[in-house]
Amino acid sequence: MHQRKWTPFFGILIVLLYGGTKAVAQKQHTEVITLEEIWRKALENNIQIKIQQSNIDITGKEVKIKRQKLLPSITTNLEVAYLGDIHIYDKDFTNKVKVDMPNLGNSFAIQAQQLIYKGRAVQKGISHANLAHQYSKLQKRNTEQEIKLYVTGLYLDLYRLYNQKFVYHRNIELAQIRLHHTKALHQQELVTQDDVLRTQFMLSKLKIKHHQIENQIQIVNHQLTTAVGITPTVIIYPDTTILSTHISHYDYQTYHDKGVKDNPRLLMSQKKVEIAQNALSLCKSEISPSISLFAVNHLQSPLTTSIPVKDNYANSWKVGLTLSMDLSMGYKIRKRKELKRLQVLLSQEMVEEQEEKIDMEIHSAYLKYKENINELETFKENKLLARENYRMIEKKYVNQLALLIDVLHASNTKLEAELDVANAEINALFSYYKILKITGEL
């Protein structure tokens, strides 16, 4: 009997199939995660936040380096040399006379210097580094606000989808009971086959929608797990207590004042004005003279200033002030000062533009929030009415006092009212978080 030989291809295929099956077989598990935990994980794992934190560390180090310029500088110089003999000639290079030199020469010098005045250039340099450090912190804070609002939107979308899934599941159960009653009435020849078909059609549409929502939950869950940096096998279930979040109700002016005071984007624009103004001051200080206090001590051997040369040590010292100034800097810096002034004006205009944007954002978000609150209250009342209407029509249908089309219409109305409430609750909460983000309090 011919025996089949296993090729490497079949071995690889089996490994791939087994590995793929094993990967698919990875079990998903549900975890109830609060929004605060979502925020924490998102900020911990976001690469942009890590980069900006590194930038904060770097600018912090630069501040310390700039401050070191206020400290005195101390320099030393040690020299060891072999000295050759000196030859002395007449003006016509005749009558050479050799002067013996001590062949080993050495010198040691130490100098301390302290900058006293440079038109506050050092202080302005420190201020510039400090402003850059503060700006990097505001950058990180703004990114944190953006990320928190983004994952909040996904989190609330997931909650909305779970609410919708529950609503459709409950209506499927009611549709199944209605189908059971309709079939029973059909057997008693109290309703036609069309009523049974219409009920089955309604039930199938509900099941399709229920399945679509399940798929959408998988999509949003994958987006959220990716955003917060956890494994996609975790099925996140939102904390239901989020709907009881304490909401501080303020008027528009209060939110506007908070936004103008604490919005990170506006604070960044204002910080750019400070940076530009400091850069202008730093530019002006470059034309100032530099005055420093110094002290020098110098030890040297041999004494080459005497004839014959003495193989002794000479120690000398001096203290005093040194003044230096680049006279050409006056006309060189003129164009740079004009550029810095224009940059100051530009940064001030950008602050005004940012204030207008934030004012419009707060105004729009505030109106949307009030609108969502009013919608929620209305939808809650409609939900109670729709449920009562459905209960009455369903009872009449069982007692043959209403048509199936009336039941289906009442069922659709109830379903729509329940979905409206589920969506309105999430919309109102997201609008509130959006206001917090704009005012810099998220």
Q: What is this entry, summarized?
A:
The chain has about 450 residues and is of the alpha+beta class. It has ten helices and eight strands.
* N→C terminal distance: 77 Å
By DSSP (H or I, 4+ residues per run), the number of helices equals: 10
- CATH architecture term of the largest domain: Up-down Bundle
Average pLDDT, rounded to a whole number, is 83
CA-atom Rg in angstroms:
41 Å
Q: Strand content of the residues, in percent? A: 5-15%
For the largest beta sheet, what order do the strands appear in spatially? 2-5-7-8
Quaternary class: single chain
Helix content: 55-70%
3D architecture notes:
There is one protein chain. Helices cover about 65% and strands about 15% of the residues. It has about 450 residues and is α+β, with helices and mostly antiparallel strands. The chain has two domains: about 30-70 and about 120-290 and about 325-440, Outer membrane efflux proteins (OEP); about 70-115 and about 290-325. The strands form three sheets. It has a four-stranded antiparallel β-sheet with strand order 2-5-7-8, with no helix packed on it. A two-stranded parallel sheet has the order 1-6. Strands 3-4 form a two-stranded antiparallel ribbon. A hairpin with an 8-residue loop joins strand 3 (about 85-90) and strand 4 (about 95-100). Helix 2 (about 35-45) crosses helix 4, helix 3 packs antiparallel against helix 4 and helix 4 (about 120-185) runs antiparallel to helix 10 (about 405-440).
